[in-house]
Design goal:
By secondary structure, this protein is of the alpha+beta class. The protein is built from 8 helices and 18 strands. Strands 1, 2, 3, 4, 5, 6, 7, 8 and 18 form a 9-stranded mixed β-sheet that branches. Strands 9, 10, 11, 12, 13, 14, 15, 16 and 17 form a 9-stranded mixed β-sheet that branches. Helix 3 (93-106) packs across helix 4 (114-128).
Length: 361
């Protein structure tokens, strides 16, 4: 199948240089956006077509557009980094393309050829690389997403879709400056159940987590941690990050991929890096009661969360109901810091890339 060529539409009013410089000097995560976006359309009769690099702007949708009623929508998140030589690079973009299609299959949506996904991301970065923010942890956060664009009312998979890529210049995800985040254990809400959409990166998973996240924030915590739907016992993930647990013998545990948690690309990289450093990593269930007992006994020395947006984030304190417990000394641990440094050094081209994860642009 031949892929559509990209048409580049002229931009009538790019953001002025001085306005852009001010916007990227200290960007709040996900609040600043670049000049351009990429759009590709799909229909059953034409396949993927109408690929454009165009000015970023509002979308015009009919009130009966399918996504507004039946929530056929998926997305990805990845970053473009500036290397020391001034060039740009993507991290594991092939994995994002593959996961995007896995989500599409689960949501009964059209699959986007992986080479077209990668081409679209590269076009977006090329158009707005000058928006790269000169801040600590700076990157261009790319949001590829797709939604059902067919206009109809009826419970069936849509026959038309629109795929887009937008870019947000970002710094560090958490701006509090605290050495570690605090978690609230949700015992009233679950994120996903067996047979559901937990392994798909779709908006509905995040929408259903927001009431628990709001509860966590109201109680003074940074994030919520979800337990399994069947027993309300096993740790699954945060609202948007995977979890890891480090023990006093140097071994690491992370919840297994059983279809109810997102198969994080950062998660997979952390497992690979940890094993490469000689550490034992076990993908196995870990119970909330055991987490507390191991933290209080000292058997558990570190916990951390990971994801594209927040990278690697230490967990310092956990609260469930009226009970709280502290992980280690309540701050970053040595294993967490080591793994984060290894990951970031590869992403930014400061270390060898034996796994072929970095795509230079």
């Amino acid at each position: 199948m031949s892929l559509p060529a990209f048409t580049h539409l002229p931009h009538p009013s790019k953001v002025a240089d001085e306005v852009r410089a001010a916007a990227i000097a200290d960007p709040v995560f996900g609040r600043v956006f670049t000049d351009h976006m990429v759009s590709i359309r799909y229909s059953e009769d034409k396949g993927w077509h109408d690929a454009q690099v165009m000015p970023r702007g509002p979308l015009t949708l009919d009130p009966a557009t399918a996504v507004l009623h039946y929530a056929q929508e998926i997305f990805e998140g990845l970053k473009a980094y500036r290397l020391d030589d001034g060039s740009m690079a993507l991290f594991r973009v092939e994995a994002n393309a593959a996961r995007f299609n896995a989500s599409a299959r689960r949501m009964a949506m059209a699959e986007l050829p992986e080479e077209l996904f990668i081409a679209a991301v590269k076009e977006a970065v090329a158009a707005d690389a000058h928006w790269f923010p000169p801040v600590d942890g700076g990157a261009l956060y790319l949001r590829p997403f797709m939604f059902a664009s067919e206009v109809f009312l009826g419970v069936k998979p849509a026959s038309e879709y629109q795929f887009l890529v937008i870019i947000s210049p970002v710094g560090n995800y958490f701006r509090s400056g605290a050495p570690a985040i605090s978690l609230w254990v949700s015992e009233d809400y679950t994120r996903a159940a067996p047979g559901g959409t937990g392994a798909a990166k779709c908006g509905g998973n995040y929408a259903s987590s927001l009431v628990a996240q709001r509860e966590a924030i109201a109680k003074g915590h940074d994030q919520v941690v979800f337990l399994d739907a069947a027993e309300h016992r096993w740790i699954e993930e945060l609202g948007g990050m995977n979890m890891f647990f480090v023990f006093d013998d140097g071994s690491i545990v992370t919840p297994p991929l059983t279809g109810t948690i997102l198969p994080g690309i950062t998660r997979d990289a952390i497992i690979t890096l940890a094993r490469g450093a000689g550490l034992t990593v076990r993908e196995e269930p870990y119970a909330i009661d055991q987490w507390q007992a191991d933290a209080e006994s000292g058997k558990l020395t570190e916990s951390f969360a990971c994801g594209t947006a927040a990278v690697v984030t230490p967990v310092g304190k956990v609260t469930r109901g009226e009970t709280s417990f502290t992980i280690g000394a309540g701050g970053p641990g040595q294993v967490t810091a080591m793994l984060k440094d290894k990951l970031v050094d590869i992403q930014r081209g400061r270390a060898a890339d034996p796994h072929g994860w970095v795509m230079r642009l």
